[in-house]
Amino acid sequence: MPVIQYGESLYPDDSVEREVYGPGPELRWGPGKTLADIPDVDAATAEGLLVLGQWVTAADLARFPRLRVVVRMGVGYDRIDRAACAARNILVCNVPDYGTMEVAEHAVVAALALRRGLFLYHETQRADPPAPWRFIDAGKLVRRSEVQTFGIIGLGRIGTAAALRAKAFGFRVVFYDPHRPNGSDRAIGVARARTLEELLRQSDVLSVHAPLTPETKGMLGMEQLALLPDGAVVVNTARGPIIDLAALETLLREGRIAGAALDVLPVEPPVEPVPDLLRAYRAREKWLEGRLLITPHSAFQTPQSWDDIRRKSAETMAAALLSNAPQNVIPPDSY
Ligand code: NAI
Q1: What CATH number is attached to the domain comprising 60?
Q2: Residue 198: active-site member
Q3: For 46, 88, 201, 218, which has the most beta carbons within 10 A of its beta carbon?
């Protein structure tokens, strides 16, 4: 029976995995955080590999000569060298359906919280001394949902769930996604922008839900963000490198962007020297008060989504390695 290797030791026991795989396969749990921590002797025999946050490079793969399947225990697979996997006919699968609602809700709720001034009040009411017991004129930040357009980049699973939620709160919703077929707009009653520029010019809230690909990396730089209406709010729960943080910071400082919520950063976890925007946020600089929310790539997380990741990852590995009906396969030539 094949050997299935997990990139790290994740759970107190293997009860769920045994339920899914049965008694046959040998299960191994990585002793550290990276694939380099897995001893050569274990790497040499593993046929299935499951990774959560680990990178899978060509050099890593060279240590796994018998590998047949890599399962990314999440949606994004930008840390896996898929070309190197394809060259060895190693199947790459993801787990697309564990945190769709969580991420969508995180994005929409973050936008709503910024637009209602919740972070601003939270910070100022517990300041020393606390702010006066009255509303604050928050300038461009606070705004009624019904007068706003909620712009979505990437109308996939999470983008669709975000669109439906934003719609329910009264936003006009528009999306840009060149890969979606005609009629995707009609199916859920939202508008479609044919170009990124068309989307940006009308998005009072911009929420990013596209994967990180060569096409989307850096797709929101100064030129693009400057097209947003005055006082827009930007939310990124997708991948950090899609947005140029320096450009976002400049526009926040100038007040042309009113607020932002970032669950993802260009480098995760952030390393010194951290981006200026993160430094200003951590230093609680006054100009940013109530205008920036940072969360540590936690948009997906609930106990329920975590349970789903565990079971669905094992099911995906079992389907690919132990049966002839693989699921969630990422085509080697897809973005
Ligand atoms: P999905 O594959 O269902 O949807 C992605 C959509 O983006 C697709 O419809 C695709 O056509 C579109 N897209 C691709 N290139 C584009 C481009 N250049 N411009 C506009 N749209 C483009 O993926 P899903 O499940 O909705 O997840 C989206 C992303 O969210 C993931 O790739 C991942 O990076 C991120 N994510 C973040 C999490 C978090 O905790 N912060 C958790 C899960 C996913």
Answers
A1: 3.40.50.720
A2: no
A3: 46
Residue 328 covered by a domain: no
156 alpha carbon – ligand 1 mean position (Å): 6
Residues 84 and 134 in one domain: no
Q: CA nearest 171: which of 147, 152, 153, 189?
A: 147
The model's pTM is 0.95
Residue nearest to atom 44 of ligand 1 (CA): 75
Beta bridge partners of 174: 151, 191
Cα–ligand 1 centroid distance for 7 (angstroms): 24
Range of the domain at 9: 3-98+303-321
Tell me the residue type at 181: P
Tell me: the pLDDT tens digits for 240-271?
999 999 999 999 999 999 999 999 999 999 99
Residues 72, 239, 291, 310: which is the catalytic one?
239
Is 106 a catalytic site residue? Answer: no
